[in-house]
Fold:
Amino acid sequence: MALPKQSEDFPGWYQEVVKQAGLAESSLARGTMVIKPYGFAIWERIQRAFDDRIKATGHENVYFPLLIPHKLLEREAQHVEGFAPEVAVVTHAGGEELEEPLFIRPTSETIFWATYAKWVQSYRDLPLLYNQWCNVVRWEKRPRLFLRTTEFLWQEGHTAHETSEEAIAEARKILLDVYRDAAETVLGLPVRVGRKSESERFAGAVETFCMEGLMRDSKALQAGTSHYLGQNFSKAYGVKFLGRDNSEQFAEATSWGVSTRLVGGVIMTHGDDRGLRLPPLLAPIQVVIVPIYKSDDERALVLDATKRLVGALGDVRVKVDDREGFRPGFKYNEWELKGVPIRLEIGPKDLAAGQVTLARRDNGNKAPVPEAGVVQRVTELLDEIQRTLYEQAAAFRDEHTFEPKDYDEFKTLLTEPGGFLVAGWCGDRSCEDRVKAETKATIRYLPLDPEPVQGACIVCGRPATERATFAIAY
Amino acid sequence: MALPKQSEDFPGWYQEVVKQAGLAESSLARGTMVIKPYGFAIWERIQRAFDDRIKATGHENVYFPLLIPHKLLEREAQHVEGFAPEVAVVTHAGGEELEEPLFIRPTSETIFWATYAKWVQSYRDLPLLYNQWCNVVRWEKRPRLFLRTTEFLWQEGHTAHETSEEAIAEARKILLDVYRDAAETVLGLPVRVGRKSESERFAGAVETFCMEGLMRDSKALQAGTSHYLGQNFSKAYGVKFLGRDNSEQFAEATSWGVSTRLVGGVIMTHGDDRGLRLPPLLAPIQVVIVPIYKSDDERALVLDATKRLVGALGDVRVKVDDREGFRPGFKYNEWELKGVPIRLEIGPKDLAAGQVTLARRDNGNKAPVPEAGVVQRVTELLDEIQRTLYEQAAAFRDEHTFEPKDYDEFKTLLTEPGGFLVAGWCGDRSCEDRVKAETKATIRYLPLDPEPVQGACIVCGRPATERATFAIAY
Structure:
């Protein structure tokens, strides 16, 4: 079935790509999803990219329980306010009603910090640099595959430090050296990094840092957040230590996460009207080979050449589509839909000419390559496609970044063509709320480091205190 | 704190090793655990060993939801009987009581097969060869870290096939080529494979295949199971397909799993009175280097030599313990407790003599090695220690495998020295139950393929129909 055009029905296009490319489907319990093999293979490669960097920056993986005594949630006031409405609660187990209900983690600050109270006595016990990969449950009102599901998979880092300087540096290192680097280098997602405004902060955070991408429908996607939590959780859970000066101090905290939502980000950043386009470093299949033949003799020759080519391609992730009973054109469409970066076609004519036909998914170009040069060409092209997808996305983002001169232009640009709108903001919640109410746009980020600002608030005209970047977001 | 001796207090020894080696601890909700960094690093390597083999045999990873509508549990009669008493139930979410309660998966046959009903129409859609790594919850009455916890981590494979022959071959392939191979090759666990008796089968299985290890306290540990489920689930969930002969057929099923329990198996198979002993292929740290120095001059020289050595060791997983303020003897104890296979000590005397001191964890031997030969010696020794640990465990198991001549000897041997008792069995449930009631021993496995049997049932004296292997098990 043909995909809807992105320009005509972006949500419909997204839904059909997720379905037809075999990435995921809705499951039975409301808002839950089944991640199908191809979607999960993409997630496994995302995990690898982030996990490598999390470990390279000195963090270790752990596993904390799914189920948490309900009373633990109540300790940090902002946190409970933010998450209590979303939690799922276990009231019965082992055939009996539980004396105390358990909640399913929507995020794990509560149980990490209740446990850290046992682990931290002295400054010598710090820092704690731990991360876990797990599932979390948040009761979403309007679920959407990958972007917002009742259960999702993610990693959540929870670190404890001696000083606020160290904790802030940690939260920023994760944002820049782990998250942005993995997103840009491997996923090919150009992201803007910054701080959240108070209203968009994580419940319980002193400061939330974020990375934001721009999707091809000009909407923003929050792709990862890293929080400086100050002493909010150490005070709520009693994580005290004897400092270097022999005084009792509360630990300083960070937490940070990226989730299966990134799969949605990859789809909506790179995809086109033919389906997915996967950056080679992320693609579970980098090269698909389609052998073409009619007679049995041709079949033997072509499959033999295919086998040699697979061997020569070594570490490249290659799939040979030798399914019988499907026409080459059908196979081409399927692998284009699935976003495989390079397709090689090998038929009798190619063999006779000592060549294979190479098709690029990113731009659709198709040309013969001499057999002897295929490996080198593929290797070069994988690099080139990785770079091209990133650059196209960055160019799109830059072309959709505007500095409206007044609130009218702000509203016009937001409607058409949409994108990131950079504008002065007085710092007042009421102006932020008014923009949201009137346009659905929110402040996606403020500069990572507060900067001196000139000019006026785009809404009220009073002097601006921040340069805010607004967008309509997922 | 000194560990209890294995021979005097094996459960106490286990508990202290888990604690002191930093593997895990109990968490707040009853029966749940926190897997700490070192314990999780071991689990990550176990995952790698099994996941590589699961993928190499043609399976793909997926992810199915944690929460399942309660009514789905009721479809397969034996399955509900087995699992309903253990499930945890979510009754409230998003601040409201749910119209229909959800249960947390204790295993995922229900949701996989409810979903497979949508995915399978024709024999062309088969086989489905899927696996997931996830958490499951079973309300355990007597939890024990790693061995039996309310929540545990595992992989569960769920496959659908055209014929029973194919499904049985799948269940056996997983047992032999995936589970046994990973357990023996990487974890160094010698395992016996076989069939379960009817009373020990998975709830809903036609046949349960298993691998069983023998721990150093002479108790057996079920280390992995692979089930042939016949058409029980396809009939319960309506997974029908149009066969090659155009007739409507029900799919044939398997499921199979190994869990974090394997960490417990590794501890209890290889550990000794000094703590863990990790097989090199599994060990997160294969070599620990302890630099020894007093003066600053010595420090510079020794750390320089250490750095060169780390570089020379290349891909070997090396940890340098250069913590200040701890005596070498303290460090030796700690790394012995943590089971690191090889320790290298480098001090000024070693440097002067052009050597390093090498200590093996498996047998405690300690000897100098010329500096030029260290890399080769380490490489050889890692292989040798891997082999030695396996062989020691296999020898222990063989020395603790008996063929008692009558039920009296059976009971005597079971008490002292304990182990696997191989005996004739009439096949009657009442004899199996009597053994369990009187001795706590259960049938751990029957031969993988039924064999002709001579002799009498060890309990009732009637003709034996099976050669059963009994043991007291975890």
